[in-house]
Amino acid sequence: MQTAEVEKKVKFDPYVNLGNFTPQSNGSIQFNHTRSKKPLPALIEANRNKEGNGINISVVVFIIEEFKYPTISVTQSYSISSAGTKQLQFFITYDYKEVESCNFKSYELNFDAKQEKLPEGVKLGQVDTVEVFLTDKDPIASRGTETSVRSST
Predict the structure, then answer these.
(1) What is the pLDDT of residues 4-24, one digit of tens each?
(2) Quick one: pLDDT at residue 127?
(3) CA–CA separation, 65 vs 40, rounded Å?
(4) What is the torsional sign of CA 94, 97, 99, 104?
(5) What is the 3-state secondary structure (H, E, C) of 3-22?
(6) Contacts from 83-87 at CB under 8 Å and sequence distance 24+?
């Protein structure tokens, strides 16, 4: 096999860029004591669409109040969960200086999972869990949260 063919096979990118978001804050939270630099856990909800072949994701992230107008990117990847089920992972990435704080703003992101780059034979309707990671581009720490995908009603 030639070197170019090997490099092509090795360079597979399993991530799907779902875009950049500049959400508006929809609330705030204040703690009595200063929180560490570690991100607060995201709140997530994942629901199948009415046809059962897609997944709608809603995520609320908490970012320090001093960071105004965040630009947040979302990337999707497929994995197998620790329980052995089909899972999508979403990486919510922002860039700001990590500082300890008491005051946080909440930002809601809504997006749809993509069929793109799933393994052959795997459909979104077969995915059982969604895991979200909140990360800084130059992180000291990141935070992950997992939820089950609910059927539409």
Answers:
(1) 554 555 556 789 999 999 888
(2) 94
(3) 13
(4) negative
(5) HHHHHHHHCCCCCEEEEEEC
(6) 83/129, 85/128, 85/129, 86/122, 86/126, 86/127, 86/128, 86/129, 87/127, 87/128, 87/129, 87/130, 87/131
Give Dmax (Cα) for the chain: 62
Torsion of CA 118, 74, 11, 86, to 10 degrees: -30
Using one digit for the tens of pLDDT, what is the confidence trace for 83-130?
899 999 999 988 877 788 899 999 999 999 999 999 999 999 999 999
Nearest to 44 by CA among 62, 55, 59, 54: 59
Structure tokens at 19: 């875009």
